[in-house]
Hints:
With 562 residues, the protein is an all-alpha fold. The protein is 68% helix and 2% strand.
Amino acid sequence: MALLDHQPPSVFEDTLRLAEVPSNLNATRESSGSRSLEQGLRIIPLRLRGFTRLFIFGSLIYMTFAFGGVHAANYLSFQALLFGLLAVYLMMCPTALYNGVVAPLKIGGTSRSPNGPVLSRSIAVFLAGLCIYPALQLALFSLRREAHPVLGFATAPLDRAAFFEQWITLVAFAAWFILLSSFVKDSPRRARIMFRVLALLTFAVSITALMHWFYDNGKLFWVFAPDYMFLSNRARWPFVNSNHLAHFLLPGIFILTGWLTINAQEIGRQIKDAASRDRRKFSNLIISSELQSRVIASAFLFAALGAALLCLFSSLSRGGWFGAAGGGIALLWLSAARRGEQDAGEPQQTLHLKRSKHHRQSGSRSSHGADALLGVLSRSRMVVKPLIVLMLCTFIYLFFNERGSDLFAERLDYGLLHSKDDMRWVMFADSLRMFWDHPVLGVGLGGWATSYPLYMERLLSGINPVYLHSDPLQLLCETGILGGLLMLGLVASVLAGVWRALPRVQDNLRIKLVSLASGLIALSIASFFDFSFHIPAIALSAGAYLALTAFYVERAWLTKLR
């Protein structure tokens, strides 16, 4: 049946379907207890599900390699398709949107803890506030009168074209998050697929940038050119700006780190389990295709992580380096924080298995070589971190010993000698004066570029900046304290959700949650030094990381039904 031939249910029928979901789930649990917990509700129709998958992954890939999606034809087409797809969802399966944003996460055979948060709902509320507030801001600006040297009093200045452009961008980001959250929560196994797609996209972008770094003629793939062409000694493709390349890679680097850690732990767990049981099982494991596949995958992930790190260094982006340092600190802190804690009255999620008498006997008959291997595995944890540090130092040495040394030295000299006179610091100081003149409401969404010439230093006369090189500061100038509080609430809700979920997750789920949170922290730090979120590809990937973080936080609060 074609997608458009699907008959949209009435509001009454859809309400009945929503009410029948719990009973259907209970019947399913009773009839087939062996069904995978990863199936989810699967409310989205099959054809619509396939089109949504194509749209999500196609948009992430295309917008990234189309110069970051900065051309109007690209991001306007994306917005039109996004709003059209959400309209189809509202007609055909509004329950999927409700379950994806408002309702708690539901997976077969599990139930949400009564104290568990619905992080997707909190994020949607703050995003809705950021979309509604500018409309109120526009109304207040229309009523406010200011002194004018010729007209006496006039309406407060506001660039309406820039206002509506930025407002539609905010609405599109909120719609993108709603679509991603609904799609993932409808069938949770898609979260794992999206996690891997984002990691592989990071690798593909890194390889593209490194290829062009050694030979750049100003064109992407030596064929396509942006609006203007120039040669650069810094890695930058498929983004025209090197800083935007580094900021796009930041969350993906932490995703690759998490995926590599999961694979390494699975390899160690399989070897340890086989070696502790019997000699024959251990021998079969060594030659098994599953273990070999994991080893090959780990080698690939290690190479991908190395390529992404090399690309981050070769971008020579100081904001990217600051973000990577902040994200790395967050990764180490969150990995060790709140481990082993548990809220009072909450059941543990860990499943404890008793070893049978036969297994205990077979374990006692293990070979001396297997016992020795167990000892090596237990002691290897002590050398893993020093080994990683040694490998990173070797990597940095090789980088500095080749072409990277001259480029990095030039960048460092510039940072030490000219950072004080850098144009960005002057723009930051001018923008702070703009904020203090309009602290409550700001100068209006999209109004920074219009208002900045009134506060510009004379030394900068002749330039016409469109964006301030600091997304948080520009948002504060345009929306004032009220808009800043909404953004602060969004960040605080995500951090609080991750912090509360950490004691409840272990092993792979904890690694994914920590890597996602660290990547978002790194990107947020980098955004203080550039207009990262004004690049469509970075905004789209940030929405995907945000939706995955919300999903894994909510999944941490699921417990098995008794």
